[in-house]
Structure formats: structure tokens, C-alpha cells
Design goal:
heterodimer, A: 370 residues, 16 helices, B: alpha/beta, Rossmann fold, 6-stranded mixed beta sheet, 5-stranded mixed beta sheet, 12 helices, binds iron/sulfur cluster
Chain lengths: 370, 479
């Protein structure tokens, strides 16, 4: 790859101070460092560094949702790919514009948002809405706070929340029936057969359940149900999620406390008869609820975002419990069928407060030490 | 306190157990600076002949700790900047004992107990002592609340305690006894990696009956051998007085100075790291030409020579010509040369990582060929929490970093930045490549300075108040 490096070196002066394209230096740098690892050396102790960098860190998050992305492709067609492209294009434009204005590097964090966002969108959502949503999420949810690392809210969720509030009808009507073929939509189908351009809107399991129609748990496990593009296949989410936990990019405490509190509360509600499900028994309904909607996806990939979750471990436990509990409450006692987005955004707000309280305790303990 | 955090970085080039003796050199370049010391007061003249063990210079800020002539030779003061050069070096009989009359004089002045401390200082053993909390040289005339003796050295790569102890067990236990003679009833804590090992049993047999030696076992995880960490682990409180700390070499030096009244000049140091051919331990004197060591051990021309370990050592400057008086090991790291194509996306079978994000996590632990590459771009903190987790001091480097970013020095002080032991692990693991260690050290220094200034200011005010009062009183009187 020497020749490529030579090209990079050759065009570098154009982007440096005094060059014609110096405004676009962040973009050039992002590209350069994407292709070639930086040549920076350590200046002092420690003289060696761990191989882990932010690119790798973010790559892990992206890899972990690749199974879900394939599931989306399989069930909802190649239109999903277009959504991903639009999401990246729109989001990167915002990101790059801010990098240029701020004269900072383009941050890798966006690449995660860019793939997560279409995964939590209804699969038949107009593409312009995808672009608008992600741009809004990145702009309001991240850049206004000062960019990656300083944002309070998960940008993808901010985008989704915005669309849900601004275009509630379009959002709820863009859910479609997943492909029922053996090969799914793999053979370059734009949308699953049966749902043409003016596709039939299909209720998601949670909204259908309000009307008394229960999707089967096994379908939810595999993903052959209606729902947001990447949220339907429980098994693939768990697979990717466990991978993410294994790499320690996501923290297991958050996931365990969200799912744990969700399971316990749901079980309690079902056992006490406060909520009715069309399935008998206790285990069955709990698993059904666990798989339904965006809970698993949110717990594994959204709530674990290190920037917007608490940094302290006790904070993570409480944060998870809040998200799990609020999800149960919204799902069962409000008009909304799906509560994960709001629950996590609420958790995001509370996270800094939790941290502050726990740090306070810790510092008091440290201070007492001689 | 429990031992928390810590991590052993898997750096290739661990020094072998053996010791090779470097051939004598006929010129020695003694740097006038080392990590803790600046030898600012010269005790010799240009062209003067000195014997091995003579004092060449002293550090007046550090209780007059001396720079000893490791060998006999002729002094050249101006030959090289920042060095005392010793020419026509010969391995003559070392100065066997101290002058009798001088001893008497000291005995009169300091009493019998003072003699040992005087010997430690002038025979070059005192420089192996550390204050456990600050890492500085303790006051030789002070009384510690305890002495921590550690046989463990965990940083890659500094000299290993077991190598130094080899065949010198007797000297070691005798040294422990000598240390005890400096104390009244205060305990000595002997830190070992395994208190059931053969070596530990031997030591135990030898020191049986000395109730004042307490053994402490620690896991071999960096940086649990740090004196600050050990003092906290032992529950020693800062306000109860200083804690002295020595490593194996310090005990051996104390034995040599006090039992044999001989100067401590020869050192065993390690030479390791990725850029070293046959990493090992070497026996050499301070001032030994670095060029000779480089020539024999360093493979690559573009390698960084580090005085100390890879995590806390300092790169040897080009104008430094010889081993300094405090060197405990040399680490050699090749400088980063090549840029990897799509580096971040590689599977990483050959990459050792703190978190299992590379394929190599499916492999047994192995040592990696590190270079001096930063291996990533500087980014804002993403709160991944690795630094908080790895920090052995139990403080939160990421939090302190955020405070410092906003110039909240006060808060950083509250968050106990002073407990940082400067191990460097936080900087090592940070995926955003933030130089946390440096930021924290700078903040520590700044806070210490501010506090000192405040104290001075208070003293001044107090003084002024007193003067004022005295003036008023005398005025009243005159009235
Ligand atoms: S904060 Fe200090 S003690 Fe903690 S890991 Fe960093 S350098 Fe080590
Ligand atoms: S390791 Fe670096 S990125 Fe992670 S929390 Fe610490 S300072 Fe932030």
C-alpha cells in the first residue's frame, strides 16, 4: 500500500495551512487516518500504548450490530441499505460541517450513530425522514453539546424521538410485514413481496397486543415480525450484544440491570394480574415482553453508550434499573406502546446526576484517607 | 485498603535471570542529575585524583546525598556538560574505612545512633531510600513509623528483586537487621510475591526471632510494588509520620555500608524491552558509558533508550553519556516507523490489548513487540471507564481529567489527585489517547505549589501580626 501512502503524502500540502483546500483539513485527516494508522509517537512516559483506539472501540460497536443489519436486509429488503446510506450521508454532512467550523478532527462516534439510527427506524419510513431524523439527532443531540464525549443524550435516540413527535403518523404507518420467503429479500428485493410502494401498514407486536392479537414468541426470537428494521430478531440482538459485552466496549452492568429489573417487574405485574397478556403462565409472557419491541436492542446497544450512561459502576446499576422500570411503566400504564426510547433518554438525563451523587460519596471516602 | 486495579503490560523483552558483568571502562561519565537528585555542590577539583568511594559532589537540597566516585581515577569537570568525567579509571582497592578521627567527631556530634545514619548517607546507601508517600528522599535523621522493604519490582523493565537476591540472602537478612538497628520499636514490612516460596522460607529461617519483621504477600500485578500503594495497603496513615521504603538493593546497600563500612557503587540493572538483543541484567557502575551498553545490547538504530521502565521511565537524552546514580534499569523501545494500512480494522492476532477487542484474546497471553507509536488519534474522553478501572490508587483519572479540562483545580484536589502514584496505566489504556498521567502529575505539582504558597503566606501574615503586636506593646510601654 506504499503507493496509496505516497498519494496521501502528495496531496497533503493542499490541505495544510496555506493550501487551497485547507478548510477541508478535518475531512482529509479523517480519510488519511482511516486508511493509515497515525504516525504519532509517544512523547514521554508511558512510552508504549495499548493498541486500542477510538476507531477500534467504535468498530466493535458497529460489528456487533452487523447481524441485526443483515436481518433487516433479509426481512425488510434492500431498501434498508438505502436507509443506511442516507443516514450516513446526512449525519456525516452535519458532523463534517461542525468539524470544519471547530477545526477539530471528525469523530468516530458518528459511525456508530449512523448505523444504529436506521436500525431503530420503521423499515418503510420515507428516506428523507431518515436523513432529517439523523441530522437532527446529530445536530441537537450531539454537536450542540460540544461533540462526541460531551453529549448528554444518545444522538440516535434524539433523532428517533424527534421523528416520533414530529411525524407520529408516518412513523407508526411505516411498519411493514417482513418477508416470508426462505431467502427473504436477499435476492435484491427492494421491499418484501406483498408490500409494494404503497406498502400495507402492519401493527408491531406491542401495538397488536393492545388489540388482543399476540405475535408468537418464536417469531419474535427469529425476527420474522413487524417492527423497527433491526429490532425484530431477538436472537441476533442477543448474539451481537453478548459480543459487545465480551469486548467490554459495553458494560454488562447496564444490560443486566435493565433486563433484570424489566423481567422482575413484568413478572410481578403479570403474576398480580395488573397487566393482561394473551398467553398463559408466567415465563411465557415475560419472555414475550422481553423480546417485544426495542427493549433488547435498546438495552444492548443504546443504553450502553458509554458517553451518555453513568461512569461509575453503582451509577450504572441504578441507571439500568431506572430504564427497565420506566419501560415497564410506559408499556403497561400509558397510551404509548413502546417505552424504551423515552426510558433511555430519561436515563440519559439522570445519568450525570447519579454520577455526581456517587462521586460525592466516593470523594468523601477518599478524603477521609490520610 | 484492598489492592485494586493494576495491569501487567505484555511487553516483549523480559530480562533473563542471569547477570552479565560489563567490562571495565577507562572513562566514566557521571551525570550530575538523576531522577530525584541534582548534585549541585562539587567536592573535587579539576584534575584531582580520587579513590573509589570518594565524594565527588553533593545534592544540597537532599540532605547532602553524595555522588560517589565508583572507581579511582582523575576528575575532569569541564570535559562534558552536566557530567563529571572520570579518566584513567582503575579498579584500585576501595577506601576501606572511614577516617577514625572523623568518626569520633561525628560520634560526639550526633551520638552513637547518628553514626549509622551518617554512614548510610556518606557511603551511598541512603539514596536507595524513599519516602513511601512522596517518593522523595527521606530525612536521614528522621524517625519513620515503619519501613517497607520490597523484594518485588514489577514495571517492565526494571531490575528484579530475585535476581539481586540471588546468592546474597545472607547479606539481605543482615541488612534487615541493620535497618532494624535504625529503629526503636517500629515494624519492618517485608513484601514478597509468595510468602510460601523457598526463598521466603529461607528468609524466614534466617530472620527467625526477629519479631519486628512482618511479611506481606502481594500478587505480581503492576504496580502493586509501588510504595505509596503498599503503604495504603498496610493501612499506614500519613499523619503518623514518614514511612521509609527500600527495595532489595537498598537492603543490600545498607548491609554493605553498615556491616562492612564500604561504599555502595556497583549496581545491578536490567536491560530489556523490544529493541534489546538478549535482554538480561548487567552489573555496572554509575557513569558507565551508555554507548558501550547500546553497542552491545541495542539492536535497532532507531530505538528509544529509556532510563527506567516503559511506563514511568524517562527517555535518555542525547547529551547524557553515562548511567546515572539512580538507574534501576534500561528499557529499549523501537521508534514507530511504519504506518499500517487500515490498522484499526485488522483482526489483531499479534496485538495484546487491555480489553478483548482483538482476535488475540482467543490466544494465550503473550508478549507483544511494542513500538513507541501512540496507536491512535487524540480524542475527547468517551467515558469508557478503563482508566478508572485500571487505576491502582482508587481515584478516577477520567473525572480528574474532566475537572482539569475545565480548570477546576480545586475539585481535582478534592478528588485526591495527590493519591496518584504516577504508574502510567491510565494513559496506557486510554483509547482516546489522553495523556492522563502527565495531566495528573502537572495538576499535583500545581496544587502542591499553591498549598505551599498559601502556607508561606500564612506564615508571613502570622509574622507580621506578631511584629505588629510587639510594636504595639513596646509603644504602650513607652507611653
Ligand atoms: S491516576 Fe495515577 S495512579 Fe491512577 S492509573 Fe493513572 S498514573 Fe496510575
Ligand atoms: S480511558 Fe480515556 S476515554 Fe476512557 S474514561 Fe478514561 S480518559 Fe476517558
Amino acid at each position: 500500500m506504499k503507493w496509496l501512502l505516497k498519494i496521501v503524502e502528495a496531496v497533503r500540502p493542499t490541505f495544510e495551512e496555506g493550501g487551497k483546500l485547507r478548510t477541508f483539513k478535518p475531512i482529509f485527516e479523517a480519510l488519511e487516518h482511516f486508511l493509515f494508522s497515525p504516525s504519532t509517537r509517544t512523547l514521554g512516559a508511558p512510552h508504549v500504548r495499548d493498541p486500542m483506539d477510538l476507531k477500534r472501540f467504535m468498530s466493535m460497536a458497529i460489528i456487533s450490530v452487523v447481524p441485526c443489519a443483515f436481518a433487516a436486509l433479509y426481512f425488510f429488503g434492500w431498501r434498508f441499505l438505502a436507509m443506511v446510506v442516507v443516514s450516513y450521508a446526512a449525519g456525516l454532512t452535519v458532523e463534517a460541517a461542525f468539524a470544519i467550523v471547530r477545526k477539530e478532527g471528525i469523530n468516530e462516534g458518528f459511525f456508530v450513530t449512523g448505523i444504529l439510527f436506521p436500525l431503530i427506524m420503521p423499515p418503510n419510513l420515507p428516506l428523507w425522514m431518515v436523513g432529517l431524523g439523523v441530522a437532527f439527532g446529530v445536530l441537537i443531540g450531539k454537536e450542540l453539546f460540544g461533540g462526541t464525549g460531551r453529549n448528554v443524550f444518545n444522538p440516535a435516540l434524539v433523532g428517533r424521538c424527534f421523528l416520533a413527535l414530529a411525524y407520529p403518523k408516518a412513523m407508526s404507518q411505516s411498519y411493514i410485514e417482513p418477508s416470508g420467503d426462505l431467502l427473504g429479500c436477499l435476492l435484491f428485493k427492494w421491499l418484501p413481496s406483498g408490500s409494494g410502494v404503497d406498502a400495507v401498514t402492519v401493527a408491531t407486536p406491542l401495538s397488536a397486543a393492545k388489540g388482543g392479537v399476540m405475535a408468537s414468541t418464536s417469531h419474535m426470537l427469529l425476527g420474522s415480525i413487524s417492527g423497527s428494521a433491526g429490532e425484530t430478531s431477538a436472537i441476533l440482538i442477543i448474539l451481537g450484544g453478548v459480543f459487545l459485552l465480551f469486548t467490554r466496549v459495553a458494560n454488562w452492568r447496564t444490560v443486566v440491570s435493565i433486563l433484570g429489573s424489566f423481567i422482575i417487574l413484568t413478572a410481578a405485574l403479570i403474576a398480580s394480574g395488573a397487566t393482561k397478556v394473551g398467553i398463559d403462565g408466567l415465563c411465557g409472557p415475560v419472555v414475550w415482553h422481553l423480546f417485544a419491541g426495542g427493549l433488547l436492542f435498546g438495552a444492548f446497544f443504546m443504553a450502553t453508550d458509554p458517553v451518555t450512561s453513568p461512569t461509575t459502576n453503582p451509577g450504572k446499576w441504578i441507571y439500568g434499573m431506572i430504564i427497565g422500570t420506566v419501560t415497564v411503566l410506559i408499556r403497561n400504564f400509558t397510551g404509548y406502546v413502546e417505552g424504551v426510547t423515552f426510558a433511555i433518554l430519561l436515563g440519559n438525563i439522570i445519568a450525570p446526576i447519579l454520577d455526581e451523587a456517587i462521586i460525592e460519596v466516593r470523594i468523601r471516602r477518599l478524603r477521609s484517607e490520610g | 485498603m484492598r489492592l485494586i486495579g493494576g495491569y501487567n503490560i505484555p511487553l516483549e523483552g523480559k530480562p533473563e535471570h542471569g547477570i552479565s558483568v560489563m567490562p571495565e571502562s577507562d572513562v566514566l561519565y557521571l551525570p550530575l542529575r538523576s531522577r530525584r537528585f541534582t548534585f549541585d555542590e562539587l567536592s573535587v577539583k579539576e584534575g584531582q585524583r580520587v579513590n573509589g568511594g570518594d565524594i565527588l559532589a553533593k545534592d544540597t537540597d537532599n540532605y547532602g546525598v553524595p555522588l560517589l566516585a565508583p572507581r579511582a581515577g582523575r576528575v575532569r569537570l569541564k570535559a562534558r556538560d552536566g557530567h563529571i568525567v572520570l579518566e584513567e579509571v582503575a579498579l584500585l582497592e576501595e577506601r576501606a574505612d572511614m577516617a577514625e578521627e572523623k568518626m569520633e567527631h561525628i560520634e560526639q556530634e550526633m551520638g552513637a545512633a547518628g553514626i549509622n545514619r551518617y554512614k548510610l548517607l556518606t557511603l551511598g546507601a541512603w539514596q536507595f531510600f524513599y519516602d513511601a508517600y512522596s517518593g522523595r528522599l527521606p530525612d536521614p535523621l528522621g524517625t519513620p513509623q515503619a519501613i517497607i522493604v520490597s523484594t518485588v519490582s514489577l514495571e517492565p523493565f526494571v531490575v528484579r528483586g530475585d535476581v539481586q537476591l540471588h546468592k546474597r540472602l545472607l547479606n539481605f537478612t543482615r541488612g534487615l537487621e541493620q535497618l532494624q538497628s535504625l529503629l526503636e520499636y517500629q515494624p519492618i514490612y517485608l513484601v514478597m510475591p509468595d510468602i510460601k516460596s523457598n526463598l521466603a522460607n529461607l528468609v524466614r529461617d534466617q530472620i527467625r526471632g526477629y519479631a519486628w519483621v512482618k511479611m506481606l504477600e502481594i500478587p505480581l500485578t503492576y504496580p502493586y510494588d509501588d510504595f505509596g500503594i503498599l503503604a495504603r495497603r498496610l493501612g499506614l496513615k500519613r499523619n503518623k509520620g514518614p514511612v521509609w521504603a527500600v527495595r532489595t538493593e537498598g537492603v543490600l546497600a545498607a548491609d554493605r555500608a553498615l556491616t562492612m563500612t564500604k561504599p555502595c557503587t556497583v549496581r545491578i540493572i536490567s536491560i530489556g524491552g523490544t529493541g534489546v538483543q538478549g535482554p538480561t541484567h548487567i552489573k555496572a557502575v554509575p557513569g558507565y558509558p551508555l554507548e558501550a551498553i547500546r553497542y552491545k545490547y541495542v539492536l535497532e538504530p532507531a530505538a528509544r533508550l529509556i532510563n527506567g521502565g516503559a511506563l514511568t521511565g524517562e527517555a535518555v537524552r542525547d547529551d547524557t553519556l553515562g548511567l546515572d546514580a539512580e538507574c534501576r534499569g534500561l528499557t529499549v523501545i523501537p521508534e514507530l516507523q511504519e504506518r499500517e494500512f487500515l490498522g484499526f480494522a485488522r483482526p489483531g492476532w499479534d496485538r495484546s490489548c487491555y480489553v478483548p477487542c482483538y482476535l488475540s484474546s482467543l490466544r494465550k497471553p503473550f508478549r507483544e513487540r511494542f513500538t513507541s507509536g501512540l496507536r491512535g488519534e487524540a480524542r475527547p474522553c468517551v467515558s469508557c471507564g478503563y482508566c478508572d478501572e485500571v487505576c491502582p490508587a482508587g481515584i478516577m483519572p477520567s473525572l480528574i481529567h474532566k475537572y482539569l479540562y475545565r480548570d477546576l483545580t480545586e475539585e481535582a484536589d478534592q478528588a485526591r489527585v495527590d493519591l496518584c502514584v504516577e504508574c502510567g496505566l491510565c494513559s496506557y489504556v486510554c483509547p482516546s489517547k489522553i495523556d492522563l498521567r502527565k495531566q495528573l502529575i502537572d495538576a499535583k505539582d500545581l496544587i502542591a505549589k499553591e498549598k505551599e504558597e498559601m502556607r508561606q503566606e500564612q506564615l508571613r501574615q502570622e509574622e507580621a501580626r506578631k511584629q505588629e503586636e510587639a510594636r504595639r506593646q513596646s509603644e504602650e510601654k513607652s507611653e
